[in-house]
Amino acid sequence: MNKHFRPIILALILSLGAGCARNPITGKSELMLIPEQQDIEIGKKYAPEIEKQMGGRIQDQALQNYINSVGQKIARVSHNQSFKYQFTALQDKSVNAFALPGGYIFITKGMLQNLETEAQLAGILGHEIVHVVARDVANAMSTQIGIDLLLSAVTSEKTPQTVLTVAQLGTQIMSLRFSRQDEREADLGGLDYMIAAGYNPYGLVESMEMLAAQNRERPIEFLSTHPAPENRSAYLKQSITTKQFSLANTRIGKEEYKTAVLNRLN
Q1: Residue 104 pairs with which residues in a beta bridge?
Q2: Are 112 and 261 contacting, i.e. CB atoms less than 8 angstroms apart?
Q3: Whole-angstrom Cα distance, residue 121 to residue 63?
Q4: Which of 81, 110, 161, 171 is positioned for an S-S bond with 93, CB 3.0–4.6 A?
Q5: Number of alpha carbons in the 13 Å side-chain half-sphere of residue 263
Q6: Distance of alpha carbon 8 from alpha carbon 14, whole angstroms
Q7: Total domain count, the chain
Q8: Where does the pLDDT of residue 15 fall: very low under 50, low under 70, confident under 90, or very high at 90 and above?
Q9: Contacts of 44 (CB under 8 A, 6+ apart)
């Protein structure tokens, strides 16, 4: 795109309602080039492409219903209830989980096979829900994706170029990188959501320890877009202790997860 047109396009995006938005996780105001009302449209537009690039959905409706039910428990206690959260398990064998704007959250077969309890699953989904609520994905798109592709994401024009950029942007969305601060906020916010939903918060600690162990054997996809988990287990444990969470009657769900997920994947 001609560089002389970029200021005009930026002005167009800002005219769609972008500007400063309050991050409900931190309480801070952040500059967003994508207005919140566009989050759902972006998620809806690119979710099918993400599914396609990751091998499609796992063809087991009972498993999908279970993943969704766990995710919905976390979503119901999140700061943003305006998004229609959708949780989908994908066929891809990499160890990965990620989110699109507007509440579209994905977890791979490879990740599911390496988890052992429902609480661990809740921790991973809670982490991704915080990214949605804090609009980290939309913010990363604003700063990491070129203005040409960004414009195609916030418009509904059906042109040959738009069709082409669906695949291009889908690939770029999956490679978005979050800052260490974003990840820390997603970890700690996910921990709070887990407790509010009745889950044992050590499930997230265990998930981080699993990811660290997996990454020592060979680099895993999840950590290509997320900072390494070296210190994450430590500050999660500290938060659990500092906040004096009551762990009595919190849900772990080892047998439930084995029945609903692991036995169905093997």
Answers
A1: 86, 100
A2: yes
A3: 13
A4: 110
A5: 9
A6: 10
A7: 1
A8: very low
A9: 102, 104
Is residue 4 in some structural domain? no
Residue 86 three-state SS: strand
Chain CA centroid to CA 131, Å: 5
pLDDT of residue 93: 94
Residue 214 CA: distances (Å) to CA of 16, 60, 179, 190, 223: 43, 26, 21, 21, 10
C-alpha 13 chain-centroid distance: 24
**How does pLDDT run across 207-236, given as a tens digit for each residue?**
999 988 887 777 666 655 555 556 788 899
Q: Which of 203, 250, 210, 256 is nearest to 65 (CA)?
A: 256
Burial class (CB in 10 A: 0-12, 13-18, 19+), 32: buried
Residue 14 included in any domain: no
pLDDT confidence of residue 146:
56
Domain containing 129: what range? 26-265
| Alpha carbons 167 and 157: distance in angstroms, whole number | 16
- Provide mean pLDDT across the span 84-94: 95
Q: Has residue 141 been placed in a domain?
A: yes
Q: Is 150 left (phi over 0), alpha (psi -120 to 50) or beta?
A: alpha
In a domain, 18, yes or no: no
